[in-house]
Design brief:
The complex is a heterodimer of chains A (about 350) and B (about 625). Chain A has helices at about 5-10, 15-20, 35-45, 50-65, 105-110, 125-130, 145-160, 170-185, 210-220, 230, 250-260, 275-285, 335-345; strands spanning about 135-140, 165-170, 190-195, 200, 205-210, 235-240, 265-270, 290-295, 305-310, 315. With about 350 residues, chain A is α/β, with parallel strands linked by helices. Chain A has an eight-stranded mixed β-sheet, sandwiched between helices. A two-stranded antiparallel sheet of chain A has the order 9-10. Chain B has about 625 residues and is α/β, with parallel strands linked by helices. In chain B, a hairpin with a 6-residue loop joins β9 (about 300-310) and β10. The two termini of chain B are about 45 Å apart. The chains are: A alpha/beta (about 350), B alpha/beta (about 625). Chains A and B meet through α3, α8, α9, α11 and α12 of A and α1, α5, β6, α6 and β7 of B. β9 of chain A pairs parallel with β7 of chain B, so a sheet runs across the interface. The structure holds adenosine-5'-diphosphate and magnesium ion (MG).
Chain lengths: ~350, ~625
């Protein structure tokens, strides 16, 4: 088999087979996409393409449920048996439900603008604001839920109390956007901004900054520099605080939280993360009062997932209109068919076979 | 079939199903730009009324950000209502597009996935075309959190009853990653705490050395390390209970006693069940052929999976993993070399003698081994007539042969020593988890002492006092440059050039203006210093071409933004970011005005010169 033929054969395999092949050949292969995986497989086996090929053949035959090895592939030594794999007729390994798959019309239903409604805070928003009266609060909710409302209301209350508020975001661009937004809400005399290259209205009661700048202010204060803003500091809002896990900059969030003055409340706003309780428990362990976690994972605007074939045909991605949480394999049969067709017809390098 | 849908067809399909406005996430800036080009000849123009709305909205933005007016994409935005939004653009352009999206004027924005986190505007629909993302020069699959962050932009509160995440395949896609991302729970996040030099200096400025331990203990890093330590402590408790039946017997430490006795006993040749001459060399070597060990065989290498003695002849044998993945049985005598290389091996009692994960890992390691490996120096005990005597003599010291507890000890010793080993292992790990941050801190302290920023008693020296104000990446290089007076007499342009080359961490190639000889020789000095510091701090890229771009902007105040952009192939957005980051570095230098007035003055001049044109326009 030529390298080209081998590449093509690899491309025809489901990703699971490629991962199986990659075991022991490619380091950390689970992080690679299909195309990259094929590249890596060919690269790492360039000295022994025959070995790769024969392993591939074995796996293909394995999948077809046959037990004999292909002729010529006799082995003297025993091989490791592949770990038992759950297999059921549908390739995802989940029982098919008997319900019929959703139609495109049903999937599109509800599309459009909702009737205007008076603004009523969501229960989680009120809960976060109420908790903030007594203690630090960690919010972990899906993107688009309305964390800004919590930030704005919390800032308003602290400012009414004659306290300084600091709001940080990880990106300068976001800080600038918030500066404009908050200036509209509170009036431009009430809002200032401090970033690495911009300083405006630095004595305002509501200060927007990047997290690095706040960390620096806290270090200066710790070493004895007097900063009245920190003396009257009542609230520190760290938006997008899932950035604490950023490989390069995450440490800045930790420093900021460790050195945040104890008289100021902390409000951590984060997108959905897997372990918000850990963050809340950590805060509890180092801050004067037990912190409160406010979390939910339900999106306010329901989300539907679709599949658009390169020929322009749109189909629902899953069998149900809503996203089937916990069931990645409940694919719509039409999507399954179209995507297989796509995989079959496109070469790994992206060139069409024809 | 085309490998992916044509942008014009995509927009047509979305419009037809009323799925606009949409954000289309593409793999690269290039892909976004090419998508824009494909609209040049498209005949899917908007009705005049909508074109007017866009034009009016654009005019309002341009009033605030004049540079937007010049943007080459404006005609496409007006005619078709689509735009590109990525890191290659100026912030003003991105602000304009975000504003248009917020007002609902556009049908689609083509953006790069790398920026998904920085895109703070929602849409009715997001279109996903890829399942992996470029991070640190390599593509990795999107995490569940990232997929949800991207999909989360779909569905605007108050404007949409439902949001749509539409996947359209490209050769880069693995559907499984995306379906898992859409249906799964986001991953847990982990601390990425590191101890930096400025952190050490600032901590020691504010707190005595002995308090630092307690401060580090407040980190999320330590919180998570403690969680792991507590897990091990619970295991240790269980082990403690399991060890109860093996408490003190006739001797208090009977386990060690027995192990030593057993060893001595085994070494007595006449105790071997089958009398058979095994060379002392082989015996010594066999001792090292433990699971995980790399050995050289007559043909190729292998990793030992288990050692045993053959039935009957009691020949020393090993099971070996070979590079082709096979497991073969070899007599230890056929082992040609025992290498000084052992891998972790999670042993099991049945074929293939280790766990599947271990097997894969070992197999991988075996194929990745360098061609040359050091062999293990093995000392072969000189067999002399006196040895048996010595052993017999040493046996005489053991009470075991006559001890009443002997049968019980013999029976229990295997289990007991395994448990004790585990106890030792866990205790060590717990100590390491509890103390690792402190050790890392101490390492940094020692470096800062060596360089003279800290006194031997860990107080800040005069240099430490100002150095703590430099709180950016590559702080050690910068403070060392200042101490070496590398910038003495350097004009603002040179200072800016050097700072830019330190600040810039992108290795994207391109064409750039020529560098001045002054800057070139200064950079040579910087490079030398950075190299000598490399054991203590990763050196920056220090690209001369990048330094030249920044130098030009300062050296020639009449140079316009367009003029600067023409000098290089860097994208506008990249030049902007380079200068903005250089500005941050310069403002840190400026904080040194009390101790280094000349340098701070030069930095202030540079800052004033950088801020012109689009760099001043910005919010
Ligand atoms: N209680 C609410 N009722 C209706 N709309 C809301 C409510 N809270 C927030 N919103 C709207 O939801 C949208 C998304 O809010 P935002 O704060 O940007 O989300 P997040 O920061 O959580 O991603 C905004 O347009 C906001 O006006
Ligand atoms: Mg937000």
């Amino acid at each position: 088999m030529t390298t080209d033929e081998l590449e093509r054969l690899l491309a025809q395999q489901p990703v699971a087979v490629l991962h199986r092949l990659a075991r022991g050949r490619v380091h950390r292969h689970f992080r690679a996409g299909k195309r990259r995986l094929i590249e890596l497989l060919l690269q790492h086996s360039s000295q022994n393409l025959a070995g790769l090929e024969s392993d591939l053949q074995t796996l293909i035959i394995d999948r077809q449920g046959q037990s004999q090895l292909p002729p010529g592939a006799t082995r003297t030594a025993h091989r490791v048996p592949s770990p038992p794999q759950k297999r059921s007729p549908n390739r995802g390994g989940e029982p098919e439900t008997s319900e019929p798959a959703v139609s495109l019309t049903a999937w599109l239903e509800g599309l459009g603008v909702p009737p205007p409604q008076p603004f009523v805070p969501d229960p989680w928003q009120s809960e976060a604001l109420a908790a903030l009266d007594d203690t630090d609060v960690v919010v972990s909710v899906p993107t688009g839920s309305g964390k800004t409302y919590v930030a704005v209301e919390a800032a308003r209350r602290a400012m009414e109390d004659n306290r300084t508020v600091i709001y940080t975001s990880p990106l300068k661009a976001l800080s600038n956007t918030k500066f404009t937004e908050f200036s509209k809400i509170f009036g431009s005399d009430k809002v200032g901004i401090l970033t690495g290259d911009r300083q405006e209205n630095g004595q305002a009661p509501l200060l927007i900054m990047t997290t690095e700048i706040l960390r620096n202010l806290l270090y200066d204060a710790a070493s004895g520099e007097i900063d009245v803003r920190l003396d009257t500091l009542g609230l520190v809002i760290l938006d997008e605080s899932q950035y604490i896990a950023d490989p390069e900059r995450g440490v800045v969030w930790e420093e900021t939280i460790i050195f945040c003055p104890s008289q100021a409340k902390l409000l951590l706003l984060s997108a959905s993360i897997g372990n918000p309780q850990d963050i809340a428990d950590w805060l509890t362990s180092i801050r004067p009062t037990a912190s409160r976690l406010v979390r939910h994972s339900k999106r306010t605007v329901p989300l539907r997932a679709g599949y658009l074939h390169p020929n322009g045909k749109l189909v629902p991605l899953f069998k149900t209109a809503a996203i089937p949480s916990g069931h990645p394999n409940h694919l719509h049969p039409e999507t399954k068919r179209l995507f297989h067709e796509y995989e079959d017809e496109t070469m790994p390098s992206g060139r069409s076979r024809r | 079939m085309p490998p992916s849908i044509h942008p014009v067809d995509l927009i047509t399909a979305l419009r037809q199903k009323h799925l606009t406005p949409a954000i289309v996430f593409l793999t690269s800036r290039r892909a976004c730009d090419e998508a824009m080009e494909s609209f040049d000849v498209a005949d899917i123009v908007l009705p005049p009324a909508r074109q007017e709305v866009i034009a009016a909205a654009l005019d309002r933005v341009i009033a605030n950000y004049p540079s937007v007016a010049e943007h080459p994409l404006i005609p496409t935005v007006r005619r078709i209502g689509v735009a590109a939004h990525h890191a290659g653009h100026l912030p003003s352009w991105k602000i304009a597009i975000e504003e248009l999206m917020r007002q609902g004027c556009l049908d689609a924005v083509f953006a790069t996935t790398t920026l998904a986190a920085g895109v703070d505007f929602p849409a009715r629909t997001v279109v996903i075309t890829q399942s992996s993302i470029r991070k640190a020069r390599d593509f990795t699959d999107l995490t569940i959190g990232e997929v949800q962050q991207i999909a989360g932009r779909a569905g605007r509160r108050g404007k949409d009853q439902v949001g749509f995440a539409v996947i359209t395949p490209s050769p880069y896609i693995d559907l499984g990653v995306l379906t898992k991302g859409l249906t799964g729970h986001p991953e847990s996040i982990d601390s990425q705490f590191t101890i930096t030099y400025p952190m050490v200096l600032n901590l020691l400025k504010a707190h005595p050395h002995e308090q630092i331990h307690a401060i580090l203990a407040k980190s999320f890093a330590q919180f998570q390390l403690n969680q792991r330590a507590e897990l091990l402590e619970r295991k240790l408790d269980t082990l403690h209970v399991q060890m109860e039946p093996f408490g003190p017997r006739v001797c208090t430490d009977w386990i060690t006693q027995w192990q030593t006795f057993d060893q001595a006993r085994r070494q007595r040749p006449h105790r071997l069940q089958v009398k058979q001459q095994e060379s002392p060399e082989l015996t010594a070597r066999f001792h090292f052929m433990t699971p995980g060990r790399v050995v050289g065989l007559t043909r190729g290498r292998g990793i030992v999976l288990r050692q045993y003695r053959s039935k009957g002849q009691r020949n020393p044998m090993i099971s070996v993993l070979r590079p082709d993945g096979a497991v073969t049985e070899c007599p230890a005598a056929t082992v040609a070399e025992v290498f000084d290389r052992v891998f972790e091996c999670d042993e099991t009692s049945a074929f293939p003698w280790c766990s599947a994960a271990s097997f894969d890992e070992l197999h991988y390691q075996l194929t990745e081994l360098p061609t040359r490996l050091p062999t293990l120096p093995i000392i072969v005990p000189k067999v002399s007539e006196s040895l048996p005597d010595a052993i017999v003599q040493s046996l005489g010291d053991f009470p075991c042969p006559t001890c009443s507890s002997r049968p019980a000890c013999q029976k229990d010793v295997a289990v007991a020593s395994r448990l004790r080993q585990e106890q030792h292992r866990h205790t060590k790990s717990i100590q390491a988890l509890r103390a690792s941050l402190w050790h890392r801190f101490q390492e940094r302290v020692e470096v800062l002492q060596t360089f003279g920023y800290l006194t031997p008693s860990a107080h800040l020296t005069d240099d430490g006092e100002w150095a703590r104000l430099i709180r950016i990446d590559h702080s050690l290089l910068i403070t060392e440059l200042i101490r070496a007076e590398a910038f003495a007499g350097a004009d603002p342009a040179l200072l800016t050039g050097v700072m830019a080359s330190i600040a810039h961490d992108d290795d994207r190639p391109g064409a750039f203006p020529r560098i001045s000889t002054g800057l070139s020789s200064l950079l040579g000095q910087v490079r030398k210093l950075a190299e000598s510091l490399s054991p203590y701090e990763d050196p920056p890229l220090l690209r001369a071409d990048i330094a030249a771009v920044a130098e030009r902007w300062i050296a020639d105040p009449t140079l316009t933004w367009i003029g600067l952009c023409r000098l290089t192939t860097m994208a506008e957005g990249d030049i902007y970011r380079l200068l903005a980051r250089t500005l941050e570095f310069l403002s840190q230098i400026h904080t040194l005005h009390a101790t280094h007035p000349g340098l701070a003055d030069s930095a202030a001049k540079a800052i004033a010169l950088i801020r012109r044109g689009v760099l001043e326009e910005l919010p």
